[in-house]
UniProtKB/TrEMBL annotation:
GO cellular component: plasma membrane
Originating organism: Stenomitos frigidus ULC18
Record bears the keyword Transport: yes
Family: Belongs to the ABC transporter superfamily. Nitrate/nitrite/cyanate uptake transporter (NitT) (TC 3.A.1.16) family.
Its membrane topology: Peripheral membrane protein
UniProt-recorded name of the protein: Nitrate ABC transporter ATP-binding protein
One Gene Ontology term of the molecular function aspect: ATP hydrolysis activity
Domain ABC transporter residue range list: 3-234
Highest classification ranks of the organism: Bacteria, Bacillati, Cyanobacteriota, Cyanophyceae, Leptolyngbyales
Subcellular location: Cell inner membrane
Gene3D superfamilies xrefs: P-loop containing nucleotide triphosphate hydrolases (3.40.50.300)
Length: 258
């Protein structure tokens, strides 16, 4: 499996004229990779994810999965948003089954699949709980289980840990890394958090702003995986390189806008 973004441009019409949000985006994501796109506000991260998810269409260019053109949403892409998007009147099991129910799976099959993925994310014993009874990190794990239950080819994540406090976010980073290594799921995540991107991904696309373009592709090779690596000079070098890259291109964008 691979996900391919080819010469993608996205423009919006405004009262002031045409706004170019994404310009000449090219990406290739192979099966089992964990890829992050990192950029500051105005880099078009969320717009890019919407094109890949099929929630919006490129002005020009294309997105393909397994050489099939993306023309709309589909079960080959699971989506996890920053805010948990759980249905408050449904319990954890019902929320995890929801996508499968929409696909028309029989009750027994969707219950078995959802139960399996709740086990994968460590929430089996909370199957009967309502979202209001869960912590923020637990709610996001339910959302991840729901996305995984449809067994997508790629998991798309829109700043999924941005709404969490620092300690919960760190715990979720460890959880996500372990989940990726155990399931070999292909992940494409957007974030503005440089340390998050370096910690989780094996490749990073650094996006510049106004318009959003790929400024650099960085292959991440860390000496180990786990929170201790954040103190390693190699980790700090990746972090500093990315932060300097985003800072420099942010200044260029401000200068152009002025």
């Amino acid at each position: 499996m691979y996900l391919q973004v080819n010469k993608l441009h996205k423009n919006f019409k405004t009262q002031q004229g045409t706004l170019v949000v994404l310009q000449d985006i090219n990406m290739l994501i192979e099966r089992g990779e964990f890829i992050c796109a990192v950029g500051a506000s105005g880099s078009g991260k969320s717009t890019l994810l919407r094109q890949i998810a099929g929630l919006d269409s490129p002005t020009t260019g294309e997105v393909k999965i397994d050489n099939q053109l993306v023309t709309g949403p589909g079960p080959d892409r699971g989506m996890v948003f920053q805010h948990y998007t759980l249905y408050p009147w449904m319990n954890v099991q019902e929320n995890a089954e929801f996508g499968l129910k929409l696909q028309g799976l029989a009750k027994k099959e969707r219950r078995e699949k959802a139960s399996h993925y709740l086990s994968v994310v460590g929430l089996s014993r909370f199957a009967k709980a309502l979202p209001k009874e869960l912590s923020g990190g637990m709610k996001q794990r339910v959302a991840i289980a729901r996305a995984l239950a449809s067994e997508p080819k790629v998991l798309l994540m829109d700043e999924p840990f941005g709404a969490l406090d620092v300690h919960t976010k760190e715990a979720m980073h460890g959880f996500m890394l372990d989940l990726w290594q155990r399931t070999n799921i292909t992940v494409f995540m957007i974030t503005h958090d440089v340390e998050e991107a370096v910690f989780l991904s094996n490749r990073i696309y650094a996006l510049g702003a106004r318009p959003g373009t790929v400024r650099k592709e960085i292959v991440v090779r860390l000496p180990e995986r786990g929170h201790a690596v954040k103190r390693h000079p190699v980790f700090q070098d990746y972090r500093d390189e990315l932060m300097e890259l985003l800072r420099r291109h942010g200044q260029e964008a401000v200068a152009v806008a002025a």
